[in-house]
């Protein structure tokens, strides 16, 4: 099964798409989270403001009740009537009417603006003289009543114990109502004059009770719901609910010991944010808001963020495809061209570089240069092949001439022997050996011993041509004879020593061939005592700096030096030194 590799275009588009998706996901998550935080803080801020306003409204209601009941302390008419015993029924009737009028005067104005329906009942202490003229109060009505039947009730005893402070209580028979009570003291008992005179005055006048429906507490709260599921509740100091804005809502567990202004609770599987504000009498105003309602306000934002993310994703897919296409199009074009070259071997190709001075432009230029270079190399290889074939043909043709020359030399050698000319026979024999040595493969390496044998044949011929004109001496270490060297490195040097040195000087010449090993290098010297020449010119010519030497002398020694360096490196080769008083010394260095 052949695995399908994704193209570079698809890889780049996928990378762009993944980057865009990560950015969109991260930005959407941060935006949604940040908006929820802002909305939560806004809801808490609004709730705190509403709770503060509700607290002010409820405190105003309670303060109004407190002020209304305190005014009874200063009413001397009420106190004078309650402190006296009337003489007849008409007086009682008039006094009761006046008491009710005074009660309305003090209570109507401060309470009417806060309560729409209420009862005010003044239970007069049985110790007051006028109490005997009043009806007994078995229920809470408007007016003054004898409090004899209420002395043993818990709320009455609580009001007496409070000693003039407001208390509240509820009646189990009337769960929809709440009552505020205060003990009214006799101002006469506090009079300094009566205290000095030792006059006995009844201290407690009675208890005034103001009753109203618990719904009156909810009027300031009705317009303060942040959501349909928001629950507002007033509880007493024991955590018992006094009022609930939504009586049909399931009851909430009230955590009385919790003192934080706000907290989160879970009730019946729903998470609520609870906020509390303290009121008078140890009451607390509680608000329960479902966290889903807070998050519900962010639904539209969630939709907007989701729609924006989806739109951005679609745009990202399009842009990633477009951008990757623009980037990879030149590369894909180059890949197709290279594949075509691989399949068709068509090298005459040129690609127009895309506009722009970037890496793709450099890649196109490099490709065009590479194709041009490949075409040139192929042409060079083709031409070299043609030239090689021509050289092989010429070599095959030239093989005919050596055979003819060998046969001719053999014929000359037999004629010289038959004619008794030994010198000619000796020259012919040496020349034939030299020719066979020379005609071997030019690239073959030979031993130094073979090269010396070749030199002896050459010297033998020159000795016959120049009888008694020179002598040659050999002094080479035996271990050098097996060293490898290129062919014909001695013959040009000895020829120069004879032709350009010894022949031009008087007297018999001498040539010394020496060899020794120095630092793993074979050092070979050819010294003559001839006419000599400029050593500087010789070495400069070897280095290619001058061309002043004779052609035959110059090309021979340059050929020797170049072949040694090509074979062994520039550290080896040929150079000249002075040969004593006269003559020159050629020094060859090759690896030992």
From TrEMBL:
Stored Gene3D superfamilies: 6.10.340.10, Histidine kinase-like ATPase, C-terminal domain
Protein localization: Cell membrane
Enzyme Commission number(s) from the entry: 2.7.13.3
Keyword Phosphoprotein tagged: yes
Keywords: Cell membrane, Kinase, Membrane, Phosphoprotein, Transferase
GO MF, any single term: protein histidine kinase activity
Major site of localization recorded for this protein: membrane
Domain HAMP: 325-379
Membrane topology: Multi-pass membrane protein
PANTHER family in the cross-refs: SENSOR HISTIDINE KINASE YPDA
Name the UniProt record assigns to this protein: Sensor histidine kinase
Source species of the chain: Paenibacillus ehimensis
